[in-house]
Amino acid sequence: MNAIEVSHLTKHFGRLVALNDITFSVKEGETFGFLGPNGAGKTTTIRILTGITVPTGGDAQLFGRDIVKDTIAARRTMGIVHETSNIYTDLTAWQNLMFTAQLYDVQKALREKRGRELLELFGLWERKDDKTNGYSKGMKRRLTIAMGLINDPRLIFLDEPTSGLDVQSNLIIRDVIRDLNAKGVTVFLTTHNIEEANLTCDRVAIINRGMIAAIDSPEKLKGTIQSVQSVEVALDPVPAHAEEGLRGIATVSEVRKLGDKFRLITEDPPTVIDGVMAYAKAQKARVISVNTYGPSLEDVFIRLTGLDVRTKGVRTVD
Amino acid sequence: MTDQDWLRQLRVEIIAAWAIAKKDMLIYYLKPNIIVSGMLFPLFMFLAFAVGRPGEPSVLIPGLIAITILFSASSIEPVSIPIERRMKTFDRLISAPVSLHAVVLGESMSGFLYSIGIASVPFLAGLIIFGTPILQIAPLVIGVLLTSFCFATMGTLFASYPTESPGDIMSMLNVVRLPLIFISGIFIPIDQIPGIAQYATYFSPLTYGNDLIHAAYSGTTSFSPAVDIMMLLVFILIFQFAANRLYKKFNE
Fold first, then answer.
1. For position B78, what pLDDT does the model report?
2. Size of interface A-B (CB pairs under 8 A)
3. Closest approach of chain B CAs to the CA of A17, in angstroms?
4. Cβ contacts of B9 on chain A, cutoff 8 Å
5. Range A63-79 average pLDDT
6. How many domains does chain B have?
7. For residues A302 and A208, what is the distance between their CA atoms, to the nearest angstrom?
8. Which residues of A113-128 are buried (b: 16+ CB within 10 A; e: fewer)?
9. A87 part of contact set with chain B, CB < 8 Å
């Protein structure tokens, strides 16, 4: 049985079509990434799948339970981590966890046991009796995820779990996602961080303008756009007008400056490497390093959504 | 759903509603805007209209209890729910595996309990300071309980308006609450209310709550206690049903 089965889902807000006939499924135990630019329909999809919003058409089932007709039973199977760290800042971490456990009908002995385990797992046990208004952003996020796991869900929705967090929180959360996956919990993840989706997800769906643009494993998606390979090169000294010079090399379609390096986009890396060597020699510069890269998931995302975020200096999406 | 499933879900809903009420007690009872609108506002309203007017404590105390209940019971949710919308904690409630009825009930229970506590102040003041005799205890208890729950549910109903600002809801609520004081027989007996306004008294839940509480002190009622109780129950059902519908509608 699939954990999530979405069929021809549509959602209209007045004349605005937020979701336009989307269909996908998520296998039990899978980590599934859901990517898309702002306004693509990610939040609407999550709100429908968690039973907060009712779809205009189509249906969605969670472990075989219809989210509209059998909302409460479907919700019992899931944990939800909303995009905002929606904890009660006037309550302690322990009170927050116990409150959530009561909403999910977790029995007292079990909720106290799980509460302790989760707070220890997320490094918050020592601060359990502190009001959370004194917590850092990372601590609040970790507590939010702990609250999402208090009912031991079979499926967890993680909406931007690591956005804007410190390194420690990021590492803890990523480890937890891996552990959940290893325990067979289905993870539905939306993230700004495309590399995170690349590293974490078994499959990824890219949604754009309310429609699924692609859905497959990250590697297979990358394989669909082999034209976006690249050569990264560092030169010493960096010649004047290097970007312009490198752009003149045969088969280079684009040059991006990345710190002290240049990324040359091409569909023919060997030709570009030859060209770089010749250019360096002509400029009396040494080639310090050369690396070749296949297309990234971010490249796939940009290609499928029609965004050119780099030209605006933006490298993340909602 | 079998009878067992139904009973289990009912138990879950009651536990969740109680958890929501407890959470509100811990967080909101001592918020400054709730103290002002739930405690100080009714006190000053009462003083403004009662001081200097002839009247025995046995006439004034039931009126003060009724006004206190009106303002305190309906003050928690119009503050707590918009704040929870702003903090996104409200999403936590409406995505939990319980019905909207449980959420509405839990929110109303916090206003109800707050109101009971606040209403005990004028009650005790009447009893201890003024020695006001209570002729019938049953109408007082039933009147306070039902009126408190009725106005707590009304507060929850108003708080369904999808705003993140408590001020928006308080403004709307006061448009209803303030006229209720004058058409419900608290300061002016119902039979002395002029013209068409007298008919409006029948549409005010405060009329029936005040009538019951007043009966405890005077031994007489404008309506029968049975009518008062029935009308308060009808208002509670209407508010609860409407609140449930509106929360559902606004979340879509």
1. 92
2. 66
3. 14
4. 72
5. 94
6. 1
7. 11
8. ebbeebbebbebeebb
9. yes
- Domains of chain A, with CATH numbers? 2-222 (3.40.50.300), 227-294 (3.30.70.980)
Which of A95, A105, A147 to mutate: most B Cβ within 10 Å?
A105
Contacts of B123 (CB under 8 A, 6+ apart): B61, B65, B140, B144
| Shortest CA distance from A147: residue in chain B | B92
Largest Cα–Cα distance in chain B? 63
ipTM of the complex: 0.87
What per-residue confidence (pLDDT) applies to B49?
67
Interface contact A99, partner B, CB < 8 A: yes
Q: Closest-CA residue in chain A for B11? A: A105
Rg (CA), chain B: 18
Please judge whether A75 and B93 are an interchain contact, meaning their C-beta atoms are less than 8 angstroms apart. no
**What pLDDT does A315 receive?**
33
B149–chain A nearest CA distance, Å:
22
Whole-number Å distance between alpha carbons of A187 and A189? 6
- Measured between CA atoms, how close is A301 to chain B, in angstroms? 29
Q: How far is CA A193 from the centre of its chain?
A: 5
Q: β-strand A155-159 against A78-81: which pairing, if any? A: parallel
8 Å CB contact between A121 and A158:
no
Contact A80 B95 (CB under 8 A): yes
| pLDDT tens-place string over residues B64-92 | 899 999 999 998 999 999 999 999 999 99
The string of pLDDT tens digits covering residues A209-241 is 899 988 988 888 877 776 678 899 999 999 989
A27: left (phi over 0), alpha (psi -120 to 50) or beta: beta
Q: What is the mean pLDDT of chain B?
A: 88
Q: Which domain holds residue B59?
A: 3-251
Question: Three-state SS for A296?
Answer: coil
pLDDT per residue as tens digits for the range A261-317 = 999 988 888 999 999 999 999 999 999 999 988 777 777 777 777 665 443 333 333
